[in-house]
Amino acid sequence: MRWSELAEKELIDLVNGERLGLMGQADLVVDPGTGKVKSLVLSSGSSLFRKKREEITLEWGSIRKVGPEMVIVALGKAGTSSW
Predict the structure, then answer these.
(1) From CA 12, how far away is CA 64, in angstroms rounded?
(2) Rounded to 5 degrees, what angle do the CA atoms 8, 39, 47 make?
């Protein structure tokens, strides 16, 4: 799958069903030695209807399922969140 296809997908937390953002809004952390993606970083932000949040780091291994419109992730111990 190409990044352009992944970038349009929504990130959804498996635990509480909350929308975390779009894959395309995340920064990728890449291991320079292997070229593999280590994690995704969703930067802080706020909108009219959502409160400001801290930065969220999602380990690449926390991705559980890539569907046609969304990516399901398990924040749990794999990611850190300060909502």
Answers:
(1) 10
(2) 50
pLDDT tens per residue, the chain (83 residues)?
A: 888 899 999 999 999 888 988 999 899 999 999 999 999 998 865 555 555 567 889 999 999 999 999 999 998 644 444 43
Picking from 46, 78, 50, 63, the residue whose alpha carbon sits closest to that of residue 12 is: 63
CA dihedral 32, 38, 67, 53 (to 10 degrees): -120
Range of the domain at 52: 3-73
Tell how strand 37-42 and strand 27-30 pair up. antiparallel
How many structural domains comprise the chain?
Answer: 1
- Cα separation, 17 vs 20, in Å, equals 9
The reply to whether 82 falls in a domain is no
Is 37 a domain residue? Answer: yes
